[in-house]
Specification:
Elements lengths: L5 H4 L24 E9 L4 E7 L5 E8 L5 E10 L2 E9 L4 E9 L5 E9 L5 E12 L2 E11 L2 E13 L4 E9 L6 E11 L30 E8 L10 E7 L5 E8 L4 E11 L1
């Protein structure tokens, strides 16, 4: 499975969640306006992602371009059942499907299984594996990737989440499968903080969508990530995965610019364009 920028780039899936409710009903602001992200640019990989919406103001497609918006590189198409994300299909420029994700929900409309399909040598989609999600109430507590191998199933990745709602922070433990031991091994632990402003990816159909390999995402929370401190299993700082963010917001408390200052001394900038309606 390929790396893709922002919506298209994020491949591990699911991360920090404070609520698993249908968030598309809570995307307004106290100022009486709703802002829907239409373009996202980042100089972290010099890409631009453009978003299209269905009649319910849920993202129906996200297309990845070069930074100047000239060349289409990848595309994601999203379908819903009664306003709940059902399928996500990734396709390259040649329109061939790279990966399909199929969401299964429990009776409380929380995703419990996400099936992953990839094309085989003949191009036919076949099941590669599946993610299992565990909740405590509406709080996501664990996500694991499960891959069938012969007559057994190998858990290749697991994320566990620990919440401090009063401090608006989350602790994340990330595990990966070790070929040496045949068991999961702790890779990193992250402390994640949030602001109190509007997250542009919250409530537009991307709930429980994709995140980076360490399980960190902006898609699920109603607020924006302000800082990440990631330590390895030896309790040493992982500078390339640790940063502090500063923001510029519009009049509706949505970020228009985010600057991420990494512990390596490197800084990236993200830029957002919106359609805001009364």
């Amino acid at each position: 499975m390929k790396n893709r920028g922002l919506v298209l780039v994020l491949v591990a899936l699911i991360a920090v969640a404070f609520s698993a409710c249908k968030k598309e009903e809570d995307h307004g602001t106290t100022l009486g306006k709703q802002c829907y992200i239409t373009e996202f640019q980042t100089d972290s990989d010099y890409s631009m992602t453009k978003f299209e919406y269905n009649a319910d103001h849920l993202v129906s497609s996200a297309t990845l371009y070069n930074y100047d918006g000239t060349t289409v590189n990848d595309r994601a198409d999203l379908t819903y059942n009664d306003g709940i994300l059902h399928e996500v299909v990734f396709a390259s420029t040649d329109t061939a499907i790279d990966t399909k994700y199929i969401y299964h929900y429990n009776t409380r409309e929380l995703p419990d299984t996400i099936y992953v399909q990839v094309p085989n040598e003949s191009g036919t989609l076949t099941q590669f594996g599946y993610y299992l999600l565990g909740f405590e109430g509406d709080m996501l507590k664990e996500i694991s990737m499960n891959v069938p191998v012969n007559d057994s199933v190998i858990v290749t990745m697991k994320n566990q989440y620990f919440y401090n709602l009063a401090a608006n922070t989350v602790e994340l433990s990330h595990y990966e499968y070790s070929l040496q031991t045949g068991e999961l091994k702790l890779i990193s632990s992250s402390a994640i903080g949030f602001d109190t402003k509007q997250n542009p990816f919250y409530g537009i159909g991307l709930d429980y969508f994709f995140v980076n390999g360490e399980g960190i995402s902006s898609f699920v929370t109603k607020n924006n990530i302000t800082d990440v401190t990631t330590m390895n299993a030896s309790n040493e700082l992982m500078a390339t995965q640790s940063y502090t963010a500063t923001f510029e917001y519009n009049d509706n408390n949505f970020p228009v610019k985010i600057f991420k200052d990494y512990k390596t001394g490197f800084t990236t900038a993200d830029f957002f364009t919106y359609d805001c309606n009364n």
